[in-house]
């Protein structure tokens, strides 16, 4: 039995809301072992999910060694059962992209990053999405393609 629903307008709307997350839990592999950290993120139209990461961080070193990663977007909120809150897990491979080309969009959408965006050790990474899992709450699970995420 497939637990995933067909992607519909409600799923795309929820994915669009979660794409606006300002940070994500970033899962990387360090010497083959999973590690999770927090990273600033921004979904850029035509580019996809981008991360602003210091090259001094362990997760940047992990991404350079093995680009496979996942990012969990969505906050559990302060009330109720955290597992009933929507979340989006994106899976793919990360690569450094042209920081200067994304500077305007990052500073417009995430103005607080102005404090450190131009630091020499910070780079913008793009996750080339393989697929995504959207959990909209109990019984509302969807498997999304990269095309679904772009349409959201």
Automatic annotation (TrEMBL):
Tell me which domain of life the UniProt entry assigns to the organism this sequence originates from: Bacteria
Concerning Pfam families, the annotation shows: PNPOx_N
- Report the residue ranges that make up the Pyridoxamine 5'-phosphate oxidase N-terminal domain in this protein: 15-131
Q: InterPro entries this protein is in?
A: HutZ, Pyridox_Oxase_N, Split_barrel_FMN-bd
Name of the protein this chain belongs to = Pyridoxamine 5'-phosphate oxidase N-terminal domain-containing protein
Phylogenetic classification of the source organism = Bacteria, Pseudomonadati, Pseudomonadota, Alphaproteobacteria, Rhodobacterales
């Amino acid at each position: 039995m497939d637990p995933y629903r067909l992607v519909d307008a409600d799923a795309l709307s929820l994915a669009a809301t979660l794409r606006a997350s300002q940070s994500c839990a970033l899962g990387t592999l360090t010497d083959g072992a999973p590690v999770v950290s927090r990273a600033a993120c921004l979904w850029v139209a035509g580019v996809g999910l981008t991360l602003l990461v210091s090259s001094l961080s362990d997760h940047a070193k992990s991404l350079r060694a093995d680009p496979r990663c996942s990012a969990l977007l969505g906050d559990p909120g302060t009330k109720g059962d955290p597992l009933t809150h929507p979340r989006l897990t994106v899976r793919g491979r990360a690569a450094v992209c042209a920081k200067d080309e994304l500077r305007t969009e990052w500073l417009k959408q995430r103005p607080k990053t102005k404090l450190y965006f131009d630091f020499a050790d910070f780079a913008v990474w793009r996750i080339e999405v393989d697929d995504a899992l959207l959990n909209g709450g109990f019984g509302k699970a969807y498997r999304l393609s990269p095309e679904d995420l772009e349409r959201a």
